[in-house]
Specification:
Residues 36-71 are annotated as: Disordered. The chain has 71 residues and is mainly beta. It has strands spanning 10-13, 16-17, 20-21, 25-32, 38-42, 49-51, 56-60.
């Protein structure tokens, strides 16, 4: 697994606010922003969010589609 977070990777976000850790959630990385933050799509019906990259831990690489079987 590549240690660098990139587009399509699955991550867990541990948001902090004023020094307190909020409830963690899983998300998919959409893109890196020029400010150094990550734009993520949380699981479920939640809207996309900008998060601090220090609050993100990578779970897995972007899924790769098998070209021979199409799955």
């Amino acid at each position: 697994m590549n240690r660098v977070i990139s587009q399509g990777d699955r991550v867990v976000v541990n948001p902090t606010k004023k020094g307190f850790t909020r409830k963690p959630y899983k998300a998919t990385v959409i893109n890196w922003m020029p400010s150094g933050k990550l734009k993520v799509q949380p699981d479920g019906d939640r809207p996309t969010q900008l998060v601090n990259s220090d609050d993100v831990k990578k779970l897995s690489d972007k899924p790769v589609q098998n070209l021979t079987t199409g799955k």
